[in-house]
Amino acid sequence: MAFDLPPLPYSRDALAPHVSEDTLNFHYGKHHQAYVNNLNKLIEGTDHANAPLEKIIQDASGDSSKAGLFNNAAQVWNHTFYWHSMKPSGGGKPTGAIADKINDDFGSYEKFAEEFKAAGGSQFGSGWAWLVLKDGKLGIRKTPNAETPLTEAGATPLLTMDVWEHAYYLDYQNSRPNYMDAFLENLVNWDFVNQNLADAS
C-alpha cells in the first residue's frame, strides 16, 4: 500500500510572512513529495510494501545497505512532524503542561530556547533540532540529514525544527539564526507539543 503526501494542517500561505507560500510550495510540494515518491518506489514488491512508516524506519536504521530506504522513510516522517510543529500565530512562551515541564527540566523557557537554538545552529550542514522526552525528562537533540529520535530507545519526539537550508533559504537566505528566532517567536505549535507530551506520559 503506497504512502500519500500527508495534507498540511493549514494552507500554504498560512505561515507567512515567517515561512512564505513560496517556501512551502518547494519544501512541502517538491521536497516532501519527492521523499514520498522515492519511498513508494523502494518498498514496492518488498516486505515493507504494507508496513507502517515507523516500522520501515526502525528496520532500515543503522543498516548501510538500506540507507536509501531509511533516508526517504525518515524524511517523510520528519517532515510530517515538522509541519504539525508549526501553526499560524504560534510561538512565544508555552502554556499548559509543557510550560511547567520546561521550567522544571530547563529552569526557564529562556534557557530552553537558548539550548534549542544552539542545537539548530550548531548542526553542521543539513539536519534537525528536537525537543524529546526520555525517562520522564525533557532533552534537546540535534540530528544530521534524515536521522530522527525515533531510533533512540526510549526517546519520544515532542517538537522539531528543520534546519536544512531549503527550510529557510528563500525567506532568510543564509541566516539560520533569524529563521530559528522566527520559528520560536511566531510558529511553534505548543498545542501539538502538549498533545505529544500527554500521549507519552
UniProtKB/TrEMBL annotation:
InterPro entries: Mn/Fe_SOD (IPR001189), Mn/Fe_SOD_BS (IPR019833), Mn/Fe_SOD_C (IPR019832), Mn/Fe_SOD_N (IPR019831), Mn/Fe_SOD_N_sf (IPR036324), SOD_C_sf (IPR036314)
Function: Destroys radicals which are normally produced within the cells and which are toxic to biological systems.
Catalytic reaction list: 2 superoxide + 2 H(+) = H2O2 + O2
PANTHER family assigned to the protein according to its UniProt record, in alphabetical order: SUPEROXIDE DISMUTASE, SUPEROXIDE DISMUTASE [FE] 2, CHLOROPLASTIC
Similarity field: Belongs to the iron/manganese superoxide dismutase family.
Name the record gives this protein: Superoxide dismutase
Organism name: Henriciella barbarensis
Cofactor: Fe(3+)
Positions of Mn(2+) binding: 27, 79, 162, 166
Pfam family, one: Sod_Fe_C
Xref: SUPFAM superfamilies: Fe,Mn superoxide dismutase (SOD), C-terminal domain (SSF54719), Fe,Mn superoxide dismutase (SOD), N-terminal domain (SSF46609)
Keywords noted in UniProt: Iron, Metal-binding, Oxidoreductase
Origin superkingdom: Bacteria
EC number(s) given by UniProt: 1.15.1.1
Ranges for domain Manganese/iron superoxide dismutase N-terminal: 3-87
Gene Ontology terms, MF aspect: superoxide dismutase activity; transition metal ion binding
Domain annotation Manganese/iron superoxide dismutase C-terminal: ranges: 94-196
